[in-house]
Amino acid sequence: xxxxxxxxxxxxxxxxxxxxxxxxxxxxxxxxxxxxxxxxxxxxxxxxxxxxxxxxxxxxxxxxxxxxxxxxxxxxxxxxxxxxxxxxxxxxxxxxxxxxxxxxxxxxxxxxxxxxxxxxxxxxxxxxxxxxxxxxxxxxxxxxxxxxxxxxxxxxxxxxxxxxxxxxxxxxxxxxxxxxxxxxxxxxxxxxxxxxxxxxxxxxxxxxxxxxxxxxxxxxxxxxxxxxxxxxxxxxxxxxxxxxxxxxxxxxxxxxxx
Length: 258
Description:
The protein is an alpha+beta fold.
């Protein structure tokens, strides 16, 4: 797989290792052959038929896409292409040690990629980044050798990226979410949207393999009915999504300035 260093939408498709489509239409309308719940299957069957604004990278084992309905400022999906895994519930698929290890490796790489993109988009607003840049400029102007360890650390963008699977996925094909923590996007439109990414309904990939006694095996849908609680400050909005959404706008502005 070619390493993609930015998540921008290039004018041409990125140069990636191509792979044979899996008996699926290669036209731009490939997705039309899939039901809404099975819509992710089109990407795994014929990723080359989609524009670079949707497909980030792919090889024989995985396809990475920009989520069509993102719930954060950055929201990617990792789609495994292994036929024996594609239609399994994530809890079942990720109990396989070899598959889990491979998925975790890919997810870590994508989290790093997403963190770099977040830095590219928001770095100019960040106070921590600005302090580091000012210290670096001052050191360079003085003609001194720059010791990176003596500079302010800058912002840890990796901490602003999360990744996981849902306890009860809305789509049939196995997929792993990689997204920024802000949960701020116009596609975040109701309570279940928010709680699916702000409660244990989203299970961190690094938490696997799960014990059969883990509560996330049992509760499932109940997570979506929880009160709406701000991911950043902890304020409880009950079931008032409109008020939470307005609050999240302010939190986003503060968060990007950190």
